[in-house]
């Protein structure tokens, strides 16, 4: 019995020693802080009941960078920051809770002040927030009533399979904000606090600048009283640039669909509406400011489908036949004629660079992809095109060359400069590294092409199944 007591006493002594060591180690290193993303959650709620419901699904923010603290908050244990947005008015309420707070060498972050700066406005208290579910239920309708409708979608235009409990009388509209309307400006200022939370590197735009346009996607749900309930689904912002000599080009800056309405085709509708706007206003073309990978994917497959018309199909067949007549892979870059590029820009407002990406996918969609020889030729052509883009269009003059050294098994790559310039010699090791990098670029591009092609075919695209031959 005594032996067991001694053993238990020794165990407790060891445990206490470990605890003291851990405490001393933590004190020595100070407070390591907590990443803001780890303690912030965003909730979109329609009523007070949803605030308290266990089924209320939170949204995690994108990476949030503090000024000098690497995105960290200091001085708190078990910190939770829940940010609630009323989807009927976009008022926000912030609930901050923690078990304890203590300065362990890095100070104590003023969380309330920081959140206020992050949201760009002072959060209202809980009682006022709850009152907004009733007092501000007409907020969105009032804000958008004076806006210009860019595009209208009836029930038949809406993919009902992607939207649960849809009313057959519901409609979706994309509406341009009336910047002179006070209620519209107020609504934008409220939900603009979501931009840095949900768009990485995103910032609200200056709505006082007349070149900026804000476009709302809104769902109208009829009621028995005859007045429709408005739900703001998302928005897009775009800037109008001057284009010499007498036109403008539209640059889309942000597209955000709010989390409760994502994966329901609303981003697609916003993009369609921006394209319709560009055509109706006869802009020179449409470009994007640093689009995300998903937005680039969405934009590309939409535009590939838009390119399914006679002029394009004839040019594709001409390109494929020309590829079969050519004896040199290097000369097959699958480029449309300049007149076709200009015709597409004029008709669809596609920027040249983006059109050429879509063109490459159209070629891929129209060849016999089950034929290995056909696919090998396409990949070889893609490799040459990317090599030309990366190393220079004319690899026989300026640009880079690979030359076999006589009486040796090695190669050198050198960059040709202008007359009188010294050539840059690159040894075999660097050449191998460059080739591996190029192979990775081709592999990544093929993956993108294949993913978009699958989506295009799922939307009913019909392939020519053309056979490319060596």
UniProtKB/TrEMBL annotation:
Keyword Transferase: yes
Protein name: histone acetyltransferase
Domain spans labelled Histone acetyl transferase HAT1 N-terminal: 34-200
Matching PANTHER family: HISTONE ACETYLTRANSFERASE TYPE B CATALYTIC SUBUNIT
Gene3D superfamilies named in the record: 3.40.630.30, Histone acetyl transferase 1 (HAT1), N-terminal domain (3.90.360.10)
Domain N-acetyltransferase: 231-283
Keyword hit for NADP: no
Assigned GO CC terms: chromosome, telomeric region; nucleus
Keywords attached to this entry: Acyltransferase, Transferase
EC numbers on record: 2.3.1.48
Biological process per Gene Ontology, one example term: subtelomeric heterochromatin formation
Pfam families membership: Acetyltransf_1, Hat1_N
One GO molecular-function entry: histone H4 acetyltransferase activity
Family listed: Belongs to the HAT1 family.
InterPro entries per record: Acyl_CoA_acyltransferase (IPR016181), GNAT_dom (IPR000182), Hat1_N (IPR019467), Hat1_N_sf (IPR037113), Hist_AcTrfase_B-typ_cat-su (IPR017380)
Catalytic activity of the protein: L-lysyl-[protein] + acetyl-CoA = N(6)-acetyl-L-lysyl-[protein] + CoA + H(+)
């Amino acid at each position: 019995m005594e032996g067991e007591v001694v053993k238990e006493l020794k165990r407790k002594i060891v445990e206490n020693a470990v605890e003291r060591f851990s405490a001393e180690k933590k004190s020595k290193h100070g407070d390591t802080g907590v990443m803001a993303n780890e303690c912030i959650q965003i909730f979109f709620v329609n009523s007070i009941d949803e605030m308290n419901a266990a089924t209320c699904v939170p949204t995690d923010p994108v990476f949030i960078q503090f000024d000098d603290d690497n995105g960290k908050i200091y001085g708190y244990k078990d910190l939770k920051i829940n940010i609630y947005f009323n989807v009927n008015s976009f008022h926000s309420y912030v609930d901050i809770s923690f078990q304890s707070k203590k300065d362990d060498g890095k100070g104590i972050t003023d969380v309330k002040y920081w959140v206020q700066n992050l949201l760009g406005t002072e959060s209202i208290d809980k009682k006022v927030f709850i009152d907004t579910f009733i007092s501000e239920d007409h907020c969105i309708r009032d804000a958008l009533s004076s806006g210009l409708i860019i595009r209208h979608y009836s029930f038949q235009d809406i993919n009902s399979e992607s939207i649960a409990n849809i009313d057959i009388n519901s409609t979706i509209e994309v509406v341009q904000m009336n910047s002179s309307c006070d209620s519209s400006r107020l609504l934008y200022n409220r939900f603009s606090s979501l931009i840095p939370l949900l768009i990485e590197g995103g910032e609200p735009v200056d709505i006082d600048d007349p070149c900026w346009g804000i476009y709302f996607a809104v769902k109208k749900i009829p009621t028995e009283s005859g007045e429709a309930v408005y739900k703001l689904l998302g928005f897009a912002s775009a800037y109008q640039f001057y284009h010499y000599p007498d036109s403008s080009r539209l640059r889309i800056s942000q597209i955000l669909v709010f989390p409760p309405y994502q994966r329901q085709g609303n981003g697609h509708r916003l993009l369609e509406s921006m394209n319709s706007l560009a055509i109706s206003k006869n802009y020179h073309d449409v470009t994007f400011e640093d689009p995300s990978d998903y937005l680039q994917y969405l934009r590309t497959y939409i535009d590939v489908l838009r390119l399914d018309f006679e002029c394009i199909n004839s040019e594709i067949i001409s390109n494929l036949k020309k590829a079969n007549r050519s004896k040199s892979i290097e000369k097959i870059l699958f480029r449309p004629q300049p007149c076709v590029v200009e015709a597409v820009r004029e008709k669809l407002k596609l920027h040249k660079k983006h059109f050429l990406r879509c063109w490459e996918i159209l070629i891929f969609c129209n060849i016999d992809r089950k034929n290995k020889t056909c696919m090998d030729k396409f990949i070889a052509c893609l490799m040459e095109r990317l090599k030309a883009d990366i190393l220079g269009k004319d690899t026989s003059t300026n640009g880079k060359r690979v030359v076999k050294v006589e009486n040796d098994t090695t190669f050198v790559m050198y960059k040709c400069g202008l007359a009188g310039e010294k050539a840059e010699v690159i040894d075999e090791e660097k050449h191998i590294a460059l080739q591996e990098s190029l192979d990775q670029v081709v592999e990544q591009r093929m993956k993108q092409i294949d993913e978009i092609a699958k989506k295009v075919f799922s939307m009913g695209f019909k392939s020519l199944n053309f056979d490319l031959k060596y």
